């Protein structure tokens, strides 16, 4: 199948589609908002591969220490993307785990939702592994059982390009979306069998809709999600919006379908994806705009948050500008970089300020608790553990009470 970029550039595609936060601003926020974030389960996303996003274990320690200090409970952490294979997955997993082994009391590998609650109570970082590609299977479906045991909690079928499963968003942008293949359907079967969440971020619209059709027909009641996708509708009328928009944005109908499945959509606070805006420093209001757009579209019960975060933009932007001809997006990303839109909002530095903004818009504490982590916590057990629909809602108040009681008694987070 035709590739938009040579395979050797796969790792740089990862770098070119998720940007960093160490240079980002820490936004002022009220003490009440800061405390609210610390008291609430907050689940973000880190998409920073070892070797490019970070190279020294201390970088990981510093990043997560800041996150813990500011109340971020856990992160969906990307172990693989693009066309990475199983061997690369193992290499990435080793370095993440080796870094965490230097501070074993600071991390909780997540196998079920109780692990996230435990991390929150104990002040640890909840580690929720994800794969942004199905190529890690090495064309062997039996590996899905091992991925489940490793703790892989979600998987993307096709990352931007065209693969054996179907096509990603960059391929679709260039009119090359082949749709969901028979192999893609087989991958979905195994994801459902082993309780791994289907993530449609980075997936071309035809392939994504085919996948949703297949899920709805064969696995009704099993949610699917978009873990980190900006809403195209928010930017389509921006004064400087491009004719085709950003290829990484999703249309309203896809977000609505994910919500109807019982899943959620999470915007990513990534500057270059904000078509027609391209801020040189994304602010709390702009991040809150993304959240509010999705809430108005699909309801407060089906929205999450993500940052798609890396550590530093310097290598990313330098490489992309030197090899602009390799990115088949009509020059969109480089033009955004030239305007200064190279970063993203790090949750530890921006979420409390977002909280103040959303309160001013009329959002309640209950609303924000759902958006920051509660909606993910509702979906996770349905997929990971096969829990019946509504179980989380019935137990929610009691689980919150128990968490608070433990925290008050044992003086943790």
Report on this structure.
The structure is a single chain. The chain is α/β, with parallel strands linked by helices. It has one domain: TIM Barrel (Alpha-Beta Barrel), CATH 3.20.20. The protein is built from 17 helices and eight strands. Strands 1, 2, 3, 4, 5 and 6 form a six-stranded parallel beta sheet that branches. α3 links the parallel β1 and β2.
Helix content: 40-55%
Question: Could you tell me the radius of gyration in angstroms?
Answer: 19 Å
CATH architecture level-2 label: Alpha-Beta Barrel
- How would you describe the shape? globular
How would a crystallographer describe the biggest sheet? 6 strands, parallel
SS summary, helix count: 17
- Mean pLDDT over all positions: 90
**What is the CATH class?**
Alpha Beta
CATH homologous superfamily (4th level) name: Metal-dependent hydrolases
Q: What's the total number of strands? A: 8
- CA(first)-CA(last) distance: 50 Å
Low-confidence parts lasting 5 or more residues at pLDDT below 50? 5-19
Instruction: Specify the structural class.
Output: alpha/beta
Q: Proportion of β residues?
A: 5-15%
């Amino acid at each position: 199948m035709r590739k938009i970029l040579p395979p050797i550039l796969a790792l740089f595609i990862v770098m070119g589609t998720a940007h960093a936060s160490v240079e980002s601003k820490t936004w002022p926020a009220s003490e009440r908002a800061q405390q609210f974030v610390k008291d609430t389960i907050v689940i973000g996303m880190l998409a920073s591969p070892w070797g490019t996003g970070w190279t020294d274990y201390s970088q990981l320690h510093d990043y997560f220490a800041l996150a813990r200090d500011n109340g971020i409970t856990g992160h969906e952490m990307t172990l693989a993307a693009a066309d990475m294979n199983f061997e690369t997955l193992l290499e990435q997993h080793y370095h993440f785990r080796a870094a965490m082994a230097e501070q074993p009391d600071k991390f909780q590998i997540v196998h079920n939702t109780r692990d996230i609650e435990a991390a929150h109570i104990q002040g640890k970082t909840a580690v929720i592994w994800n794969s942004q590609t199905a190529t890690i299977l090495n064309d062997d479906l039996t590996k899905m059982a091992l991925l489940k045991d490793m703790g892989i909690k979600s998987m993307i079928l096709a990352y931007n390009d065209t693969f054996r499963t179907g096509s990603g968003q960059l391929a679709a942008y260039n009119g090359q979306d082949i749709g969901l293949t028979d192999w893609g359907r087989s991958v979905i079967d195994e994801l459902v069998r082993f309780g791994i969440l289907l993530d449609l971020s980075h997936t071309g619209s035809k392939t994504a809709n085919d996948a949703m059709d297949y899920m709805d027909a064969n696995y009704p009641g099993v949610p699917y999600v978009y873990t980190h996708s900006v809403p195209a509708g928010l930017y389509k009328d921006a004064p400087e919006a491009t004719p085709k928009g950003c290829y990484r944005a999703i249309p309203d109908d896809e977000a609505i379908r994910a919500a109807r499945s019982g899943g959620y959509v999470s915007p990513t606070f990534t500057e270059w994806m904000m078509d027609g805006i391209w801020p040189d420093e994304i602010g709390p209001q702009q991040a809150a705009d993304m959240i509010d757009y999705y809430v108005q579209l699909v309801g407060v019960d089906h929205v999450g948050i993500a940052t798609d975060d890396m550590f530093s933009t310097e290598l990313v932007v330098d490489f992309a500008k030197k090899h602009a001809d390799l990115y088949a997006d009509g020059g969109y990303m480089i033009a955004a970089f030239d305007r200064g839109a190279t970063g993203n909002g790090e949750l530890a530095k921006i979420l409390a300020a977002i909280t103040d903004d959303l309160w001013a818009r009329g959002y309640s504490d209950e609303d924000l608790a759902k958006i920051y982590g509660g909606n993910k916590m509702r979906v996770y057990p349905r997929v990971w553990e096969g829990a019946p629909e509504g179980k989380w809602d019935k137990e929610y108040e009691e689980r919150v009470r128990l968490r608070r009681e433990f925290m008050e008694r044992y003086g943790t987070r």
